[in-house]
Every structure is written in C-alpha cells, then in structure tokens.
Specification:
single chain; mainly alpha; Fumarase C, Chain B, domain 1; Fumarase C, Chain A, domain 2; Ribonucleotide Reductase Protein R1, domain 1; 3 domains; two-stranded parallel ribbon; binds arginine
C-alpha cells in the first residue's frame, strides 16, 4: 500500500518510484526521526489520542528500530522505502501492528521532515563548532611555538612590511572565530520546533506544542505553520557558514602552498599530509591543502544549489525541498573533513625561521618606517614618502639596501636624515613600532594570543 492510500487508480511508475526515493540519503535522519516520533507519541497520549498501551508499544518499537539499525546497518538496504519516515512507519507496523498507524495522527511528513532536519542540524553544528575550535586552537599553538619568527607580510603578493608569524596565524584565528559565531547563529536558527504544523495549516488536535518543544530541547516554537513546513532558511544559514568557513580554509591553504614551495621555503608540510609523485621521485606535493582548497568550491556550490532550489517556490511544502538534504549532508561532511585535515596540516608545519627572517628583511620592507622616521622629524608624510621613494630608487640603482646606503646619499635627498637612522630600520624596530591594538608588535601579539585563546573557549561555550 502506498502512503497516500487508494485514491490513485494506477500504481506509481517503477522508474518514478526509484527516482523519487530519498531513502539512500535521508536514512541519516533515522535517529532524529525516532526521537521526534517518540516525542510526538507522548504528545498524542497526553491529549488522549493514544492509549497507554499503544504508547508503550510505539515507544518500544521505535527503540527496537534504532537498536537494530545501529547493530545491523545492512538492514536498511533490505527494505526499499520512499524515505526515512515511511521506512520507520513500515518497520513499526511490522513490529507492533496497527498501533503503529496511530502515530501519524495529526502529523504530516512535511512537519516531520523539517523537525528531523532541525534536530540533525543542532547535532551537526555542535560537531562543526568543536572541529572549528580544535582547528583554531591548533593555529594558536602554532603561533605560540613560533612566537619570535618574523615573516614578510604581503600585499598584492609583494613584500610589504614584516610581521610576526603569530600575527599571521592569528589572522586565520579571527576568521575561525567569526565562523564559530556564524555556526552558533545557524544552530540557534535551527532551534525552533516546527512539529504541530501538520501538512501546512497546523494540526487539528490540541497538542501542547510548548511542552513538545521542551521535551525535544527546542528553545522556541514556530509561529506560522505555512512558513514552518517550507522554511529552509536555517539550512541556508548552515551552508552559508560552511561555505565561508571553507573559503577561509582555502585562503590558508593557498598561503601554505606558497610558503611551502621551494621558491618561498618558509614552511614545510608534514609527511603525513604530503604526497609524492608516481613519476617524479623528488616531489612532495601539498595535496591536503589542494583538496581542502578544491572542496571549498563544493561548499559554495551547495549553498548556491539550495538558494536556487528555494527561489520562486510557492508556499508551502513542495517536493523540490527533498533536494535540500544532499546539499546539507555534503556540506557538513565536507566542512568537518576539511577542518580536521587542516588541524593536522597546521599541527605538522615546520618552520625555517632563518629563511622567513631573511625574506622579511628583504624587499625594502622597512621603507614605510623610513618615512615614519622623517615624519617624527617634522616632515609631512606625503613629502617623506616621496623622499623615501627616491632613496629606494637609488638603492635599486646601486644594488644596495636601505641599511647599506651611505648617509651622505640620504642627506642629499633630505637633510632631516641623521646618523640615528640605522636603529629605526632593523626588523625588530619595525615590528616593535606597531604596538597599537591589533598590530604586529610582540607586545600586542602576545596580548592578542591570550585573548584569542579565551575567545575560542567562549565561542565554544556559547
Ligand atoms: N521525503 C520528503 C522530503 O524529504 C518528505 C516527504 C514529504 N512528501 C510529500 N509528498 N509531502 O522532503
């Protein structure tokens, strides 16, 4: 018998049945479907729609289904079903007989499926937040291990100004912290009970939805049944958080791929996340980072697919919505996998401090500080900038650095240059000048490191 009874004269087309089945995908919702069904059974019993005996049987049956599915995953393959909800109902009927058919009273798969997905999202986001925090902690540890390493900071991928390695790492911690916030918001948006909305108009039985929400641990109850069965915004929020998180990871990957290349040589990736070549024996390839960078495209694609799915859908439930779950599960799996791999990548990074320092010292990365030197002597910044550009030009022509250009040459350009010049040009002086909050001076970075640690813990506890 089909779930929709005997209205239709013809049975459904075989190909269409296979085409429309979502069980291969939504079986992941099974534990949540069981929890939701149990809570619904209690809600029905509370208003006298289920006898004590039926309730007991249903609760026992649901538990048995959960146990068997866990013990024997192949069991699910033996029973083709349209979706996880019809699977549960059919198995329950096999186990307890007609009492099973009372469970769907006042409920529709439309409010059932979105309940299940909300329960899944609450759980999945918790895992994502944990993985995000673990990754952020690994970045913090990386920063602490290499507290004194100086890196070139880049703009336009041209050496710009020196920065501390922890400053670089903390930039990615900031992104991770924002991602944590976004995940927490997505979790909170999912934390609303839709059950009781029925197919679209609200259930016709006086179910205590507030009590039901409490029994399932939901913070809120939906206020409009039409919206409740068709709202997938909370999934957009998850996919959006995953997409942006993936983009952040892909940016780190790009930096690491560059910094680990022979051309840069700042870092080296651990063997456990590198691969070799089947042809070229000398190769150590950063596949882990390349894959994470590549997979971030899927995360963006999944978000895109869901937005396009929702665009122009009329109220309320439409079967199009069945397509949401593949995108959701894929994004959660991909984001979790990427975060875990990146934690390992960051944890295994080796640093060539001398090479980093030499690169940071080159490329006239202290030129801004030379202009600042003149500013402190009263020269307007724009003029100082011009003087220094001339100095750099002369250095390039002579093939020397700011440190080795004779003072007389400086003074020919601007008489404010004095013999105290060299002490303002060292890497340490350049770094230490930036004590502003959020700057790269060792003092500021140490404060930021401690703050970052606390902020990750706080975001996790939120
Ligand atoms: N499997 C469907 C989904 O995932 C839920 C079933 C609702 N089906 C329906 N014809 N009203 O969205």
């Amino acid at each position: 018998m089909t779930l929709w009874g005997e209205l239709h004269a013809e049975p459904p087309d075989e190909h269409f049945v296979a085409f429309s089945s979502s069980f291969a995908c939504d079986r992941r919702l099974l534990p949540f479907d069981l929890v939701g069904s149990r809570a619904w059974a209690f809600a029905l019993a509370r208003i006298g729609l289920l006898s004590k005996g039926d309730l007991q049987q249903i609760v026992r049956g649901l538990r048995a289904i959960g146990l068997r599915a866990r013990k024997e995953p192949g069991w699910l393959d033996q029973h083709p079903a349209e979706d996880v909800h019809s699977f549960v109902e059919a198995r329950l009927h096999e186990l307890i007989g007609d009492a099973a058919w009372r469970l769907h009273t006042g409920r529709s798969r439309n409010d059932q499926v979105t309940l299940d997905v909300r329960l899944y999202v609450r759980d999945a986001v918790r895992q994502l937040m944990r993985a995000q925090a673990d990754y952020a902690f690994e970045l913090i540890r990386f920063a602490e291990r290499h507290n004194e390493v100086v890196l070139p900071g880049y703009t336009h991928l041209r050496r710009a100004q020196p920065i501390l390695l922890p400053h670089f790492a903390l930039a990615y911690v900031e992104m991770a912290l924002r991602d944590l916030e976004r995940l927490a918001q997505a979790r909170d948006r999912a934390d609303v009970l839709p059950l009781g909305s029925g197919a679209l108009a609200g259930t016709a039985y006086p179910v205590d939805r507030d009590r039901l929400a409490k029994s399932l641990g939901f913070a809120e109850v939906t206020d409009n049944s039409l919206d409740a069965v068709s709202d997938r915004d909370f999934i957009v929020d998850v996919l959006s958080a995953c997409a942006l998180g993936g983009i952040h990871l892909s940016r780190l990957c790009e930096d690491l791929i560059l910094y680990c290349s022979e051309e840069f040589g700042f870092f080296a990736m651990g063997d456990d996340v590198s691969t070799g070549s089947s042809l070229m024996p000398q190769k150590r390839n950063p596949d882990a980072c390349e894959l994470v960078r590549g997979k971030s495209g899927r995360l963006v694609g999944n978000l895109d697919a869901l937005l396009v799915l929702l665009k122009g859908l009329p109220l309320a439930y439409n079967r199009d919505l069945q397509e949401d779950k593949e995108r959701l599960f894929d994004s959660v799996d991909t984001a979790l996998g990427s975060l875990k791999v990146m934690r390992t990548v960051v944890g295994g990074l080796k640093v060539d401090a001398a090479k980093c320092r030499a690169a940071a010292a080159g490329g006239f990365s202290n030129a801004t500080d030379l202009a600042d030197y003149l500013v402190r002597k009263g020269v307007p910044f724009r003029l100082a900038h011009r003087h220094v550009s001339k100095v750099v030009r002369e250095c390039i022509a002579r093939g020397c650095t700011l440190e080795t250009l004779p003072l007389a040459r400086y003074q020919a350009i601007c008489d404010q240059f004095g013999p105290d010049l060299p002490e303002h040009l060292t890497l340490d002086a350049v770094l230490s000048a930036r004590t502003v909050r959020g700057g790269t001076a060792p003092l500021s970075v140490n404060v930021a490191l401690k703050r970052a640690h606390k902020r990750v813990l706080k975001a996790l506890a939120s």
